[in-house]
Design a protein that fits this description.
This protein is mainly α and 304 residues long. 76% of the residues lie in helices and 0% in strands. This is DUF7702 domain-containing protein.
């Protein structure tokens, strides 16, 4: 099947594949650029990009082999639905870790809130993977969510409320933030409306049985609706986070700034510095004479 013969949903998948491949390359470079301890948001985006690349690849294969409006539920489409839903987990974690990077406005209590937020996110991921798609929909193209999947998506909704509350609280302490923290908070605040729309779409898919339509179904629903409420929303959120990563200081710059702020007079009076001086003196007393003796002995051997 050529590109011009692809259905509307297939064209969206191809565009998504290209965009997330570019996002994946940028995220890998940012993870290496920022170094350990500062690259967690970009690692989450790498996982999200891998999920989306795999998802659209499976969807393209399933569209070619099993048209969603005519074929019953297949293993490929079940995988597409699961990957579509669990992609919110790394997106949530990337947002929480960015908020955690705001040291002064955040505070110790909020740090624990953002850290503990990862546990319900992992539980929701497990529930969605375990739930999959309703086995009763295997006889037709309904691809309904199971009760377990609904519980996982409901946890997403609760986590979204907590994340919005944490963003509001941290943003209210903006006067404590430095320029880097202001950039982080601005990016997170800008991404929240798109985030909410994405979560609402997932909620509509999970609980669409309440109104009996398939418009929000991630497999057999309205493609334009999914494009506007989920696909483009995630394009924007990930693009904002990667743009932020390009503006933040890399590992070398952070170390250089930290070295410029060191008070060497204060450092010289610390216990570790005195311990270092004692170790250096021991090395000078013991190792250097041994090296001189070895040099003299080797010289005698060469001359003999």
């Amino acid at each position: 099947m050529s590109f011009k013969d692809l259905p509307y949903g297939g064209i969206v998948n191809v565009v998504t594949l290209v965009i997330y491949f570019l996002y994946l390359c940028i995220a890998i470079w940012l993870a290496a650029r920022h170094g350990l301890g500062h690259n967690y948001p970009w690692l989450c985006i790498i996982i999200l990009s891998l999920c989306r690349v795999t998802q659209v690849s499976l969807d393209l294969a399933a569209t070619e082999l099993f048209p969603p409006q005519t074929a019953p539920n297949t293993t490929l489409e079940s995988g597409v639905a699961i990957l579509t839903e669990i992609g919110l987990t790394p997106l949530f974690m990337a947002t929480a870790s960015l908020l955690n990077a705001t040291n002064r406005p955040k505070g110790r209590r909020m740090q624990w809130v953002l850290f503990l937020l990862h546990f319900p996110l992992l539980v929701s991921l497990i529930l969605i993977v375990a739930g999959g798609i309703d086995p009763d929909s295997r006889d037709g193209p309904s691809f309904a969510a199971t009760e377990t999947t609904k519980a996982g998506v409901a946890l997403y909704c609760a986590c979204c409320v907590i994340l919005i509350w944490a963003t509001i609280v941290i943003s209210s302490r903006l006067y404590l933030a430095d320029s880097t923290e202001v950039k982080i908070l601005t990016t997170v605040v800008m991404s929240l409306p798109f985030f909410v729309v994405d979560v609402v779409y997932m909620m509509c898919f999970a609980f669409e049985s309440l109104w009996g339509t398939q418009r929000f179904n991630v497999i057999s629903g309205n493609v334009t609706l999914q494009l506007c409420m989920q696909v483009i929303m995630e394009y924007v959120i990930v693009g904002l986070y990667l743009a932020l990563g390009l503006e933040l200081l890399d590992k070398a710059s952070r170390l250089r700034d930290r070295a410029a702020e060191i008070d060497y007079d204060h450092l010289a009076g610390t216990f570790l510095w005195k311990l270092y001086e004692m170790g250096s003196a021991v090395v000078a007393v013991t190792v250097m004479p041994a090296l001189r003796l070895s040099h003299w002995f080797l010289g005698r051997l060469v001359r003999s």
